[in-house]
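for the record, two folds in this file. i put them one after another cuz i was lazy. first one right below, seq on top, structure tokens after. the second one comes after a little note so u can tell where it starts
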Amino acid sequence: MSKVIISCAVTGSVHTPSMSPHLPLTPDEIAHASVEAAEAGASVLHLHARDPKDGRPSADPKLFMEFLPRIKQSTDAVVNITTGGGQGMSLDDRLAAALTASPELASLNMGSMNFGLFPALGRYTNFQHAWEPAYLEGSRDWIFRNTFADIEGILSRLGQGHGTKFEFECYDVGHLYTLAHFLDRKLVTPPLFVQSIFGVLGGQGADTENLLHAKRIADKLFGGDYRWSVMATGRHQLPFTTMAAINGANVRVGLEDSLYARKGRLATSNAQQVSIIRSILEQLSIEIATPAETRELLGLKGGDNVAF
């Protein structure tokens, strides 16, 4: 087993401000949380932006550029910018920040899918902002779009155009086959960074059988041409990433994916979640990859070749 890459998804576009007082919202908070997570052991920082006025997800490149240079100045971690964005954003919106920043790494969802956030309405009753319940309810009738044409465009504009590589987000086994299709067409090049995602309503469930099946299929499709990573939502985050690491995967944690440090206890920071999974892995004698080792494992262009 090679050293394990810890990714940290710092804020995302899933959770809303009323769900946790520890969710980073402003550029200042996102920068601080990112640096702390890197210091705790995360070598990849997966980043979204929020409107600092009310915490809603934002695709505004100006907001990204308020925290990206600060993160680069303070840490050597690999910056991974979303191309998924959030509900209601167009493809051009979703790509704007990555095209501006020309990062080493960007996320890329491997298919269109239902993405249900509305069950959270049954767990929260008091919201700080009117947009929050409307946003959650809106996911009941929303399709997160990424068609073959969309993916081709992202691979061309951002991948070929900027030398950016991708965290290929695979919410189902079918997404692995879609990625294999683009590999066959030579529109993506190894090593592939495959992020298997479990527990999102609309994607594959957080079941051990699904975890092992996803690995079997990825092994069959990609052989030695990929680096596997795993994330799981909510209460599944730590058990699933631990199981995955034992089975040879890299791992992703962060407040985008789960707001908790343990049952019934909110995580106070992204760094706390990184520290917990790092401690578990080190107790299992699994070594943690540094940013330099991560760049080598993923074949990245290097931190000197970004635009922030």
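(here's the note) second protein begins now
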Amino acid sequence: MTAPALPPLNALRAFEAAARLGSLSRAAIELHVTHGAISRQIKLLEDDLGLALFARAGRGLRLTRAGEQLQEAAGAAFARIHSAAAELRRGAAPAALVLGCPGSVLARWMIPRLDRLARDLPQLTLHLSAQEGGFDPQLPGLDAALLLGKRPWPADWQVHELAGERIGPVVSPRYAGLASLQQGRPAALLDEALLHTASRPQAWPDWARRHGLDPAALRYGTGFDHLYYLLEAAVAGMGVAIAPQQLVSADLAAGRLLAPWGFAGTDGVWALCAPKRATDPRIGLLAEWLRRELADAP
């Protein structure tokens, strides 16, 4: 047995819009057609059904009883179709990859490269989350984390090691004590009140040991909670700071900071970490992109 044919769908759509808006003109605007096209579609639908759907009331429209019945059914059907289509579109678009970064890495290294990332990996949408302090081994709320850390890594992580860390003292050309530092002797730093940060308390002692200095002989000046603020203070000429090379590469290239003794390797590693259970292929693509960016950095 053949099912009864549906009414013409374009005509039904024109009717639904006109009935909902109470106007042929407003329906025409919504559907981007002419007033005459709406009128013709409704006439076609009325002929197909053999019923009048609108009664003309002066210059306005009034639904007939048949029109009210059809509006209720058509309105519900179009609403369901609209909702289903929206849900399908949401499901087709991959969710953003939530990437956690220490605030200094986010502000000084990641954000300046987002345009290039978008060009190189257009299929990857990131949601960036600034993280302060250590990362919870479970990485709650994150798909991955870009960080500077040291082995051994948490057992619950899959780790993409990207590059070794290099650190060194940096100072502004405007710093009043620059002349004595430019003589090139690391021991000159023993006379400085060094800028330091609570987030990297071992940075200065490690550097001192690698350059044959007694860490106990170091003098500390102004301290900061986070590396980002430490580096802003150095750029402002407040004193000598110590920083990972990649986080100050733009300042060095622009002449805002100088590195009188260059940079030395540490036990630290740049790494992209994710929960071990993660299977998102975008993490591997991002790791390869980050590895190339870090290799190209001065």
